[in-house]
C-alpha cells in the first residue's frame, strides 16, 4: 500500500449490514469476480459495474454489521477498493477487511465532510484530506498494519510460518 | 482491582497477568468451529497459505448446517464435499452433517465449555457465552491462520454490565429482555465490547434462556455476551461447580457502564421492520397481519422453546391464510420433541416441521417470502431481504408470541390471551 493515495468517494449510509453488502445466496459463490458482481446490489445496484480500482467507500456508523461472512470484505475488495472510511465498523467486518489487506479508517468527521464523487486523499496513519480540510487519523496497531502491508492475512501467515521454521 | 468476565477468561487463556481493555493479546483457542458456508473458502485460504495440517485437529469441529441438504444446486453440493474433504485432510474427527445448528450443537455436545476461548466462522458464536465461554466470530482466512498456528490475536474488550432483576410474567421470557436491551442500546451499542449479565432474573433463567441472550448480544455488535456461572451451569456441563466458580463478576471490576433492568412489568417485545434495534412493546404492533410464522434458529430452537410453542398450539388450528414453519435446532431437540408429542401437536395444528438446520433464518429454505409478505420469526436478525425479497417484512419475537400469533393470524399478546 502506498503511503499516500487518493480516490473517488462512494458515500454510504449508517448500518450497512453484511446482507446488504453481499446477500447470503450470493455469498456462497466461489468465483470472487462473479460474487463481487452482486456487491451492494440492493442498496446501490450500479456499484459493481461503475466502481473503479482505487475508489474509496465512506460510510456512517456500524459499517459491516451482521454476519461473519468474509465475502462482504472480499466482494468490495475484488473491485480494487483498498480503503474504507466509516464513523465506526462492526467488529468481525473490521477483522475481515484487514485480513483482506484493506485499510480501515474510523472517523466521525470525515463522513460528515464529504459527498459522493469528492476526491479524498489518505496519508496512511497520519491524515485524510478532503475538500481542502485535513483530518488527523489514529495510527493502527503495528500487528494490524503489518497484515495490511503484507497484502492481507494469507501472505502475512505464510511469512509468519516461514519465520518460525 | 477486580476483573470483568472477559478479562478473567483472557487472563486464564493467555497467561498474561495484567491486561486492560484495548490491549492486544495472543490467545490460544480451545475450540475452532467451521460451518458449511465457509468450508470451500477455508479450503482455498489454506491452499493459498500452503497449509496442509491443523496444529490441533482434535480441537476443531465441522458442522454442516446452513446449506443442508441443499438450497442452490450450483454452489451447495461443493460446500458439502469440501466440508467432508477438510475433515479427512485435516484429520478433524468432529464432523456433524445435518445434525443441527452449529451454535446449538456447540453447547449441547459440550464442545464449548465454561472457561474456554472459542472461535468460529459465524457471527452468532457469542451464544456459548451463556455459560461463561469467551466465544467470538471470525472469517475464513483468519480461521485458516488460526488452525495453522494455534493462535489468534484478540483485543481485550471493554465491558458493559447489565443487571436484570425481577420476575418474568407468564408469556414473557429471555427473548423479550434481550430485544428490549437491543432497542435501548441499538445495533452498535455493544460495538467491540463484552456485555456481561447478572441479577436476580438471570439467576432464575435456564441455560437455554441464557444462550438466547448471549446469542443476540452480537446484534448489538458485541464481541461476546457473558453470563456468570452458577450451579445450573455446572449441572448442564456435568462439572464440579468449584472448578468453574472463578467465573463470577468481581464487585470491583471496571465497567464502562452499568445498565439496570427490571423484568417484572416487561411486556412482550418485538423487533420490527427493518432493523434488529427497531424494538417496540407488543401493544404498539398488536393486530399486524402475518403471512408466515417461523419458530426455530439457534436463538429459539431449544426443547424449552418447542415446549412453549406446543403448549400454546395444542388442540388448536393455525389461521387459514398463514404458513407455520417449525424447525427444532438439533436432532436431539427433534427427537425429544417427538418423544414428548410436540411434533404431533405442531402437525395437527397445521404447522410444517423441517429437519434441524439454519433454514429460513439465513435466507435458505424453508419458507422464503415475496414482496409485501410479513413473517414473524423467533430468530435473531431482520435485515432487509434476509428471509425473502427486499420488500418482504420481518418481525422478531419470542416463541410464545410467535405461537400465539400463528393461531390468530395477526400479532397477538400471549400475556393477555
TrEMBL record, chain A:
From the UniProt record, give the pathway where this protein acts.
Amino-acid biosynthesis; L-leucine biosynthesis; L-leucine from 3-methyl-2-oxobutanoate: step 2/4
Q: Which residues form a coiled coil?
A: none
Recorded catalytic activity of this chain's protein: (2R,3S)-3-isopropylmalate = (2S)-2-isopropylmalate
Annotated Aconitase A/isopropylmalate dehydratase small subunit swivel domain residues:
52-107
The record, for InterPro entries, names:
Aconitase/3IPM_dehydase_swvl, AconitaseA/IPMdHydase_ssu_swvl, IPMI_Swivel, LeuD, LeuD_type2/HacB/DmdB
**Which one GO biological process term can you cite for this protein?**
L-leucine biosynthetic process
Enzyme Commission number(s): 4.2.1.33
Q: How does it assemble?
A: Heterodimer of LeuC and LeuD.
Function text: Catalyzes the isomerization between 2-isopropylmalate and 3-isopropylmalate, via the formation of 2-isopropylmaleate.
Tell me the protein's name.
Answer: 3-isopropylmalate dehydratase small subunit
**Organism, as annotated:** Paenibacillus terrae (strain HPL-003)
Q: What is the lineage of its organism?
A: Bacteria, Bacillati, Bacillota, Bacilli, Bacillales
TrEMBL record, chain B:
Q: What is the lineage of its organism?
A: Bacteria, Bacillati, Bacillota, Bacilli, Bacillales
Q: Which reaction is catalysed here?
A: citrate = D-threo-isocitrate
Q: Which GO terms of the molecular function aspect are on file? A: 3-isopropylmalate dehydratase activity; 4 iron, 4 sulfur cluster binding; aconitate hydratase activity; metal ion binding
Write down what this protein is called: aconitate hydratase
Name its GO BP terms in alphabetical order.
L-leucine biosynthetic process
Q: Which domain of life is it from?
A: Bacteria
CC cofactor: [4Fe-4S] cluster
The EC number on file is 4.2.1.3
Record-annotated Aconitase/3-isopropylmalate dehydratase large subunit alpha/beta/alpha domain positions: 21-283, 285-409
Amino acid at each position: 500500500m502506498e503511503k499516500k493515495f487518493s480516490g473517488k468517494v462512494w458515500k454510504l449510509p449508517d448500518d450497512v449490514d453484511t446482507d446488504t453488502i453481499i446477500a447470503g445466496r450470493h455469498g456462497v459463490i466461489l468465483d470472487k469476480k462473479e460474487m463481487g458482481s452482486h456487491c451492494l446490489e440492493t442498496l446501490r445496484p450500479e456499484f459493481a459495474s461503475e466502481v473503479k480500482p482505487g475508489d474509496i467507500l465512506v460510510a456512517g456508523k456500524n459499517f459491516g454489521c451482521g454476519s461473519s461472512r468474509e465475502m462482504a470484505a472480499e466482494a468490495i475488495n475484488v473491485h480494487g477498493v483498498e480503503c474504507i472510511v466509516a464513523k465506526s465498523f462492526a467488529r468481525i467486518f473490521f477483522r475481515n477487511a484487514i485480513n483482506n489487506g484493506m485499510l480501515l479508517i474510523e472517523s466521525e468527521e470525515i463522513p460528515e465532510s464529504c459527498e459522493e464523487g469528492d476526491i479524498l486523499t489518505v496519508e496512511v496513519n497520519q491524515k485524510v484530506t478532503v475538500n481542502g480540510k485535513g483530518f488527523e487519523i489514529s495510527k493502527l496497531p503495528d500487528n494490524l498494519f503489518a497484515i495490511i502491508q503484507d497484502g492481507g492475512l494469507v501472505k502475512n501467515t505464510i511469512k509468519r510460518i516461514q519465520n518460525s521454521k | 482491582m477486580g476483573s470483568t468476565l472477559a478479562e478473567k477468561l483472557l487472563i486464564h487463556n493467555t497467561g498474561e497477568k495484567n491486561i486492560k481493555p484495548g490491549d492486544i493479546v495472543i490467545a490460544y483457542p480451545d475450540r475452532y468451529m467451521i460451518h458449511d458456508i465457509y468450508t470451500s473458502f477455508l479450503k482455498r485460504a489454506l491452499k493459498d497459505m500452503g497449509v496442509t495440517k491443523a496444529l490441533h485437529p482434535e480441537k476443531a469441529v465441522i458442522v454442516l448446517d446452513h446449506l443442508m441438504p441443499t438450497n442452490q444446486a450450483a454452489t451447495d453440493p461443493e460446500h458439502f464435499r469440501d466440508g467432508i474433504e477438510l475433515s479427512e485432510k485435516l484429520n478433524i474427527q468432529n464432523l456433524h452433517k445435518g445434525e443441527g445448528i452449529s451454535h446449538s450443537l456447540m453447547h449441547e455436545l459440550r464442545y464449548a465449555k465454561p472457561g474456554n476461548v472459542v472461535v468460529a466462522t459465524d457471527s452468532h458464536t457469542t451464544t456459548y457465552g451463556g455459560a461463561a465461554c469467551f466465544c467470538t466470530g471470525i472469517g475464513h482466512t483468519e480461521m485458516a491462520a488460526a488452525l495453522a498456528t494455534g493462535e489468534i490475536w484478540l483485543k481485550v474488550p471493554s465491558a458493559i454490565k447489565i443487571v436484570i432483576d425481577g420476575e418474568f410474567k407468564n408469556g414473557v421470557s429471555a427473548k423479550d429482555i434481550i430485544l428490549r436491551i437491543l432497542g435501548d442500546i441499538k445495533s452498535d451499542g455493544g460495538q467491540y465490547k463484552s456485555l456481561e449479565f447478572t441479577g436476580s432474573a438471570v439467576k432464575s433463567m435456564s441455560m437455554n434462556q441464557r444462550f438466547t441472550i448471549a446469542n443476540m448480544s452480537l446484534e448489538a455488535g458485541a464481541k461476546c455476551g457473558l453470563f456468570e456461572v452458577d450451579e445450573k451451569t455446572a449441572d448442564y456441563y456435568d462439572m464440579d461447580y468449584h472448578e468453574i466458580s472463578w467465573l463470577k463478576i468481581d464487585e470491583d471490576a471496571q465497567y464502562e457502564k452499568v445498565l439496570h433492568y427490571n423484568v417484572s412489568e416487561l411486556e412482550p417485545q418485538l423487533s420490527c421492520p427493518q432493523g434488529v434495534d427497531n424494538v417496540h412493546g407488543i401493544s404498539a404492533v398488536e393486530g399486524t397481519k402475518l403471512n408466515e410464522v417461523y419458530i426455530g434458529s439457534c436463538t429459539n430452537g431449544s426443547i424449552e422453546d418447542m415446549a412453549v410453542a406446543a403448549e400454546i398450539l395444542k388442540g388448536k388450528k393455525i389461521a387459514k391464510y398463514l404458513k407455520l414453519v417449525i424447525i427444532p435446532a438439533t436432532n436431539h431437540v427433534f427427537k425429544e420433541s417427538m418423544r414428548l408429542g410436540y411434533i404431533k401437536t405442531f402437525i395437527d395444528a397445521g404447522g410444517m416441521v423441517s429437519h434441524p438446520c439454519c433454514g429460513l433464518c439465513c435466507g435458505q429454505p424453508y419458507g422464503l417470502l415475496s414482496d409485501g409478505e410479513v413473517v414473524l420469526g423467533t430468530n435473531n436478525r431482520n435485515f432487509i431481504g434476509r428471509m425473502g425479497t427486499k420488500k418482504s417484512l420481518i418481525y422478531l419475537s419470542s416463541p410464545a408470541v410467535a405461537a400465539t400469533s400463528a393461531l390468530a393470524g395477526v400479532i397477538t399478546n400471549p400475556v393477555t390471551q
